């Protein structure tokens, strides 16, 4: 399983009145992690959009474990949890600098035509990208 990592310096604007990172900012960090994973694998999401495709989120779950604060460095770890004909599930961990897990998450995406939002298989749009996802996807140990 291939795991991409991206560090994010937590800005003051990302915190709430309690001084902790506002929960919705984690969703933005997931997107940053997903984009970094795609880049690390040699592809560009923007290229798909230029070809007329988008990858909407179909499902998202986040489990918050330990608060993060302004000035800390968050590490977003991202991997392909599952990938099949129409859906890709990304897995995430957001870590404190000492390795403590701040949050875990999963997001499920499809690939769709930009104008119609009709699903399309990544294997038809970009066979190399599809093959790479299958190659690096998480394999459950038996």
Automatic annotation (TrEMBL):
Keywords: Hydrolase. It comes from the Bacteria. InterPro entries: 4-hydroxybenzoyl-CoA_TE (IPR050563), HotDog_dom_sf (IPR029069), YbgC/YbaW (IPR006684). Belongs to the 4-hydroxybenzoyl-CoA thioesterase family. This is Acyl-CoA thioesterase. The lineage of its organism: Bacteria, Bacillati, Bacillota, Bacilli, Bacillales.
